[in-house]
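I am sending you the entry underneath: sequence plus fold tokens. Let me know what the token row says about the fold:
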Amino acid sequence: MIFEQSIVINRPIEEVFDVATCLRRCVVWRSTLLASTKTSEGPIGVGTTFEQEVRGLGKTYQNTSIVTAYEPPRLFAFEEITGPFDYKARFNFETEGEGTRYSVWVEGESPVAWLRIVPESLFQQWGQHSIGREMETLKMMMENNVDLEAGLTAS
């Protein structure tokens, strides 16, 4: 199963990369993400690990992921190494006009147990919708200069 979404955010590429890949502030604009914590030492880069608490289709689950590509301000990729899903994600950033094209690509498999309850087509629709909604939220917040740090203390 593959999910792909793309959006242009009218902010500089470095700023969009910084906000979209921040493991701490992402909980403010990602509605499916309840918590995200960096679990490895040192600066973010290839090999960095992080744990997340994610909500989806009425369930909450934990996962651990590892950064597999980190090339600021163009590329950020990670894959889940523990948790109920087997997936990889890639965020690409390109300058477009005065803004930045932010593209998300996710490939993965849903757990067999979930497919007994939720048809794959519904899961695909939910994933596409969730990613698109989160990207729209990020665009709105960045283009309206919303203070994401304040969002952290409010949640």
